[in-house]
Amino acid sequence: MATDRIILGIDPGTVIMGYGLIHVKGPNPELIAAGIIKLDKLEEHPDRLKKIFERTTAIIEEYKPDELAIEAPFFGKNVQSMLKLGRAQGVAIAAALSKNIPITEYSPKKIKMSITGNGNASKEQVSAMLQQFLKFKNAPQYLDATDALGAAMCHFFQKKNLGTGGKSYTGWKAFLTENPKRKV
């Protein structure tokens, strides 16, 4: 496994898609970028899918990630929403595959568990833990961006033993105990 690599994380969506990039240098990852792609101004679903492909390709060309970690669609009550989300995920995956980037898919619970120690953690809890891990001061305005960073960090943790380098916590309660001034 390469010790110097860039991981692109994606939180797929058809209204807002989050992305986040981390640079792994040895034992510690560093934040490169995090943001969102807003798709709400495009009325037609195929136009949104086209935009997802174009923007994902542009992000790949700009940052040249070595790997893609993407959040898997979760089963919901609205079948149409799930189908649209699956298409968005598929288009983002296709953009990465067109650039020969390996893909790993993680369930939302797996991502939350790897970041907070709790598979049912809130988006705010995931964001707060990522701030601790990646040492950024201000969380992005949209939690879709930190969800994408969560996918990238989950991938990092899956390929590395958390005990070597950096501070680790057994869960959200342990984090709050050691960081009493953090508000979430």
Which fold name corresponds to the CATH topology?
A: Nucleotidyltransferase, domain 5
What average pLDDT do the residues reach?
87
Strand numbers in spatial order across the main sheet: 3-2-1-4-5
Q: What is the domain total for the residues?
A: 1
So how many helices? 6
Order of helices and strands: EEEHEHEHHHH
CATH superfamily: Ribonuclease H-like superfamily/Ribonuclease H
Number of E strands: 5
Structural class: alpha/beta
Give helix % range.
40-55%
Radius of gyration: 16 Å
Largest sheet: 5 strands, mixed
How far from one another are the termini?
35 Å
Overall body shape: globular
Report on this structure:
This protein has 184 residues and is of the alpha/beta class. The chain has a single domain, classed as Ribonuclease H-like superfamily/Ribonuclease H (Nucleotidyltransferase, domain 5, 2-Layer Sandwich), CATH 3.30.420.10. The protein has helices at 45-63, 79-97, 108-116, 123-134, 143-158, 172-178, and strands spanning 4-11, 16-25, 28-38, 67-71, 103-106. A five-stranded mixed β-sheet has the order 3-2-1-4-5.
